Amino acid sequence: MISLLLLVGLGVAVFVGFNIGGSSTGVAFGPAVGSRVVSKTGAGALMAAFALLGGWTVGRNVVATMGGQIVPSSLFTLPASVGVLFFVGLALLVSNLFGVPASTSMTAVGAIAGLGVAAGNIDWGVMGRIVSWWLVAPIVAFWVCAVVGRYVYPYLDVWFRIDRSEGPLFEYGRVASIPYPVPAADTSRRELVSSVLVVVIGCYMAFSAGASNVANAVAPLVGSDAITMNQGVFLAGGAIALGAFTIARRTLDTVGNDLTDLPLLAALIVEVVSASLITLLSYLGIPASLAVSATMCIVGLGWGRATRTVRLSDAATAAVRGSETADTGDAADGDEDTPDAGKPKVSVNALAAEPADEVRKIGEEDPADLQAADLFDPEATARVVMLWILTPSISAVASFLLFRFFPIYQ
Predict the structure, then answer these.
(1) Cβ(203)–Cβ(50) under 8 Å?
(2) Is residue 409 part of a domain?
(3) DSSP-derived secondary structure letter, 75
(4) Which of 254, 287, 297, 306 has the lowest CB atom count within 10 Å?
(5) Mutual orientation of helices 229-245 and 189-223 as an angle, nearest 10°?
(6) How crowded is the C-beta side of 400, counted as CA atoms within 13 Å?
(7) Taking the CA atoms of the chain, what radius of gyration do you get in angstroms?
């Protein structure tokens, strides 16, 4: 007979997965829905399928890490598992109140670490490896996208430019009574290929989200042997699907989260880089944040675009001579020097500049074309980064205090 405590634990796990599905669907399929390539219902179905696939394959490695490598699985008694999941759910609630997507992976690891410290039984080697990747992954995401933004993005913008035709993308023919999709009469080949690419990348993002987030919902329960690995993956996958078909509609209305301010091409670059990075880390069994990596990709891509206004040789010469004429895009209007001088402001509007048929060389870009407005709000970014640091820290401290004074792990 299922105990009441287990039912509570399953309920909290479903709540966590439900919220993950709601937020991740907007990130993965916001560009596809915003460009009218798929419907909200179609996005929910694709999210449900590919998130489950990611959890069933690569996600098992993350479940194993969080369910028995950071701390021994013997510490995951049913009450302790419910306590850990409670802190993950609480972090989701706090982040929603502040309007900032929290890293459920980082918060879950923080809660597990608090349990381990309170019990005096934690593998600091595993924790060190996880935290090291937390520091490295955002840096890698930033610089990969910065290089793309500076050297590759303008060419991709010309080559992959998507001009949507009026009317539907597909029409339906029939063989006997069976309908099948065919490109509409006004749909160009480039539009068709680009639209399919948008959906494929969305599915890849959903796969990555499932791989990294399934563990956040069920790892403690799997570690306590309250449920099996397969049951845990199905439970998390079902909860993510529930969120994808319900509350995700709200996030899809604004085409996801912060990615909504980006042009379609920039959003796809962000998705490919961040999803690839998180999928790799999930394969290695490292619980990492998709939201953190995606945001650093956005910042890096815009920063790289803004630096196209100056050549590296010109910037080096100006630095040696002490000249103030070199401009990297953040002082085009005569802004005064600040402590962040030399670090161009990143603006999504710079990414949205009207593309030209011919790409101008680096150093020949007009700063005015890249700075219709401030692309990067340092205040907002500081708030986001602060909450990303605070939520796992609060989770770890609260977990430690709970298990220190109430050793329900015994």
Answers:
(1) yes
(2) no
(3) G
(4) 254
(5) 130
(6) 15
(7) 23
Contact predicate 126/310, CB 8 Å: no
Query: In DSSP terms, which residues pair with 174 in a beta bridge?
Result: 179
Going by C-alpha positions, the residue among 397, 399, 393 that lies closest to residue 134 is 393
Between the two ends of the chain, the Cα-to-Cα distance in Å is: 22
Residues 6+ apart with CB under 8 A from 196: none
Compute the distance between CA of residue 241 and CA of residue 25 in angstroms, rounded to an integer: 9
For 49-72, give the DSSP string: HHHHHHHHTTHHHHHHHHHHTSS-
Helix (H/G/I), strand (E/B), else coil: 364: coil
Report the domain count for the chain: 1
The answer as to whether 410 is a domain residue is: no
**Residue 189 is encoded by which pair of tokens?**
């080949």
| pTM (predicted TM-score) | 0.79
Tell me the torsion sign for CA atoms 370, 188, 32, 143.
Answer: negative
Inside any domain, residue 178? yes
Give CA–CA dist 43/199, Å, rounded.
Answer: 9
What is the residue-level pLDDT of the chain in tens, covering all 410 positions?
A: 468 888 999 998 998 899 888 878 877 888 788 777 788 899 999 999 999 999 999 999 999 999 989 999 999 998 999 889 888 877 777 665 665 656 788 888 999 999 999 999 999 999 999 999 988 998 999 999 999 988 888 888 777 765 556 666 666 777 777 877 777 766 677 777 778 888 899 999 999 999 999 999 999 999 989 999 999 999 999 999 999 998 888 767 654 334 445 677 888 888 899 999 999 999 999 998 887 888 788 888 888 888 877 666 665 565 566 545 444 444 444 444 444 444 444 444 445 444 445 666 665 555 555 543 334 555 666 666 777 777 788 888 989 999 999 888 87
Give CA 354 to chain center in angstroms. 27
Q: Is residue 139 part of a domain?
A: yes
CA distance 251 to 400: 34
Q: In the numeric block, which tokens belong to residue 286?
A: 């490292």
